[in-house]
Write a structure and sequence with these properties.
Elements (H helix, E strand, L loop, with lengths): L40 E8 L8 E8 L1 E8 L4 E8 L3
Antiparallel strand pairs: 1-2, 3-4
Amino acid sequence: MIAGDEVRNFAQIKKGDIVEVNYQVAVATALEKASDATVAGQTSAVERAPAGAKPGMAAMQTRSIVATVLEVDAKNRTLTAQGPRVAS
């Protein structure tokens, strides 16, 4: 595992230390009717451990797209969409 510069206090870790790594991937989907003001985009956030605390960091990415719904299959809870189109 590669720990980037975002992991504050990394220099505290020494050979032979036992470390705990939690790597989580979560997917959440929300469908909303788009308006003319709806914008596609991506946001990122990083939270670093305070100086002097145990080494660590947390990161999150959120992506939004705008697409046209072509078909809805309520029985199987699926939809077919065309897109995404990137907002200018």
